[in-house]
Design goal:
The complex is a heterodimer of chains A (596) and B (84).
Chain A lengths: L7 H11 L8 H21 L2 E8 L3 E8 L1 H20 L6 H19 L3 H20 L6 H30 L14 H14 L7 H6 L4 H22 L5 H19 L3 H22 L2 H32 L15 H14 L6 H15 L3 H27 L7 H6 L5 H19 L1 H5 L14 H21 L9 E2 L3 H75 L4 H21 L1
Antiparallel strand pairs in A: 1-2
Chain B lengths: L1 H10 L1 H22 L8 H5 L3 H25 E2 L7
Classes of the chains: A mainly alpha (596), B mainly alpha (84).
């Protein structure tokens, strides 16, 4: 079947490159068509598991672009589905660059999922980081530019750690294949690779980039970002680090850490971002447990999570798109103006809270059951407590503070608030449909999970009773303590404090001593140098004028003219564009080097 | 439709609250009386009736107070903290 293998990422990349030429009435159908084709390709590949796209690279390495097996299938399916939903959500966006960045980002994610070795993985890994940075930069809000740079720098750092890890591994073992690492024979490279992957999964203490970046991205960009980076990282962790005990501890810490910050948060999207940290914590625990049930649970939860979190980010985006406000201190009482958005946000919020017949109920419980069955009752209980917190935050606090209670909106905000345009509603509707489908029709999701022989029945009386008790008494606690959960105009300091202030410290130490040296040099120059210099200058000016100019001027003028043209074209003063060109050229050179 | 429904509920707030309390009570009584917990994973589930109700309530209270305490201990700060 090798001849019929078309990499799904290739469809998105080709689609993105052609996009600028598709204009007018063809634009919107085309925008839907490309992710739809990608999705069909993923479905087609799932019919024929195997290894495809093997390329010989510089005679010594074998690159594997298409490893289609039970683990990559389920992740590719949900990523391609989310690409369709996300693109529909952003259909009204005129700027083609935003679509191109988003598609490259999804292509990176699909590339990582199908990759069979670290070189291909790394290529697509960096593509993801780089493309998604633009989704932040396209936002014109204050702070987005800086947030984009922080995001890019953090991910570059993570990429370098990963690179170090797999190069060391190659040196030690001569092996680049991306497979399960040995827990009983860990080397430095094992930990480096793990750190590189964990940074993308936002495992503390490497998590601060997530709320920082996701709250500053464009409305549509955030919908893409909330789905791809962390869940792709979970896929890679499940591939390479299933059964590593340390991940259980880190995952539990992560789940608790995220939910506590979500309780304190005022910004709608930051709150949701903190909840991603918390929910991805469950998946990290699942990977750490590593049993068949736990890995199934991780895949199921990643699948469900992408849909309900996408739905929540879309609803939050609809609020920001309409009102321009993202802080809950500036919102409230909006149910009259945005009833549909409320409905979708509640469906998303109840899904993440594991409400029966919604997606979280059938996915989250698998991981919790797996931890009890693997004799980790503490992990199971703590994760259940976080599940309580999740309902408290996403199911109750968020809808309450945005849609109910007193209105803290300004007159302008209230005036502008309305349900979003049809394509945003459609995208939310699709995501909501899948949240209900997964929760109500269990075989849809369970038949895709990697370990098909594991039997798990979420709908039993004990589980139902447990969930209903938890939901009812969390709601009761919320009712009594809701004043303690009110919106406050604050931000919460996190570990990014260190690099944000360290950056500032670095800037200070660079600027101030340099400034002093410069001033000192200037004074010395004026006193000592100037007189002697003027004498020499007068002589050399005479020589220059009469001797050299005639020869050099002609050449110089040509160089200057050409250089001026080039820099006019390439350096528009925006360093992001310069970066973009640099990386594009580097990629072109690399491609030329490999294939020519 | 959604707006009307919410307004309808809001006008009858005491009744809604009453129904919610009753529902919570029914869930707990049903869980104690009708649900077989002899195969549960933990000791607490088997021996404490309505364990998850207590657990959920306590977890909520602990999480809210823990977050509040951490927030007041210096994590929560002014919004323009990084702009200065």
């Amino acid at each position: 079947m090798t001849s019929s293998f078309i990499h799904p990422a290739l469809i998105l990349i080709a689609g993105a490159l052609i996009l600028p030429f598709i204009k007018g009435p063809f634009r919107k159908p085309y925008l839907v068509l490309v992710p739809l084709l990608t999705f069909c390709d993923v479905l087609y590949l799932s019919q024929y598991p195997g290894t495809y796209g093997i390329v010989n690279f510089m005679d010594s390495w074998t690159l594997t672009f298409g490893r289609v097996d039970s683990l990559s299938m389920v992740f590719a399916f949900i990523m391609a589905l989310m690409a369709i939903i996300g693109t529909i959500y952003g259909l009204h966006v005129e700027d083609e660059w935003q679509h191109i960045a988003a598609w490259f980002y999804v292509a990176g994610s699909l590339g990582v999922i199908y990759s069979g070795d670290y070189l291909v993985l790394f290529l697509f890994w960096e593509m993801m980081a780089f493309a998604s940075t633009f989704l932040i930069w396209f936002n014109t809000d204050k702070g987005s530019l800086a947030a984009g740079y922080r995001y890019l720098l953090v991910h570059t750092f993570g990429g370098v750690i990963l690179l170090l890890g797999f190069v060391l591994r190659y040196q030690a073992t001569g092996d680049l294949s991306f497979v399960l690492l040995d827990e009983h024979n860990t080397q430095l490279y094992t930990w480096l690779i793990m750190i590189g992957l964990m940074l993308n999964a936002a495992v503390p203490p490497l998590h601060s980039w997530l709320p920082d970046a996701y709250s500053k991205a464009t409305v549509t960009g955030a919908v893409f970002m909330c789905a791809f980076t962390t869940k792709t990282a979970i896929y890679t962790l499940a591939r390479a680090f299933a059964g590593f005990d340390i991940l259980i501890v880190l995952g539990v810490v992560m789940a608790i850490y995220g939910i506590i910050y979500a309780i304190l948060e005022n910004d709608v999207r930051r709150l949701l971002a903190w909840e991603i940290v918390s929910q991805v914590g469950y998946m990290v625990v699942g990977v750490g447990i590593g049993t068949a049930l736990a890995i199934n649970g991780t895949c199921a939860h990643a699948f469900a999570h992408i849909l309900y979190k996408g739905l929540l980010f879309m609803a939050a985006g609809a609020i920001i798109h309409a009102t321009g406000q993202s802080r809950m201190t500036d919102l409230g009482g909006l149910y009259r103006k945005m009833p549909l958005t409320l409905l979708f946000m509640v469906i998303g919020g109840l899904s993440v809270s594991a409400f029966p017949f919604l997606s979280g109920f059938v996915s989250k419980s698998m991981i919790i059951s797996a931890s009890f069955e693997s004799h980790l009752p503490l992990a199971g209980l703590l994760l259940t407590a976080v599940s309580v917190g999740t309902f408290l935050v996403a199911g109750l606090r968020l809808p309450y503070l945005v849609f109910f209670g007193e209105s803290r909106c300004s007159a302008a905000t209230w005036e502008k608030a309305e349900d979003p345009v049809w394509n945003m509603r459609l995208a939310m509707g699709i995501a909501a449909f899948f949240c209900i489908l997964i929760g109500s029709f269990v075989p849809f999701l369970y038949s895709m999970l990697p370990y098909g022989d594991v039997v798990y029945h979420p709908y039993n009386i004990a589980h139902l009773a447990e969930t209903l008790q938890i939901l009812a008494f969390t709601a009761l606690a919320f009712y009594f303590l809701k004043n303690r959960l009110a919106a406050r105009a604050t931000i919460s300091l996190d570990l990014d404090w260190f690099y944000r202030l360290a950056g500032r410290g670095f800037l200070w130490t660079t600027v101030n001593p340099l400034q002093w040296a410069d001033t000192a040099w200037g004074s010395a120059y004026r006193v000592v140098g100037l007189v002697s210099l003027m004498t020499i200058a007068r002589f050399s000016a005479w020589f220059d004028w009469h001797g050299i100019d005639g020869v050099v001027d002609g050449t110089a003028r040509i160089v200057r003219a050409v250089g001026g043209r080039v820099s006019l074209l390439l350096q528009r003063g925006q360093i992001q564009m310069t970066l973009y060109y640099t990386v594009s050229f580097a990629a072109l050179f690399l491609a030329a080097y490999v294939w020519l | 439709m959604i707006v009307n429904f919410i307004d309808y509920l809001k006008e009858r707030l005491p009744a809604v609250k009453f129904v919610c309390y009753i529902a919570a009570a029914i869930i707990v009584i049903w869980s104690m009386a009708a649900v077989d917990t002899s195969h549960a994973h933990t000791w607490a589930e088997k021996h404490i009736p309505g364990f998850w109700a207590v657990f959920a309530f306590l977890s909520s209270v602990i999480l809210i107070f823990l977050a509040g305490w951490l927030g007041r201990s210096g994590i929560q700060t002014k919004e323009d903290y990084y702009d200065k």
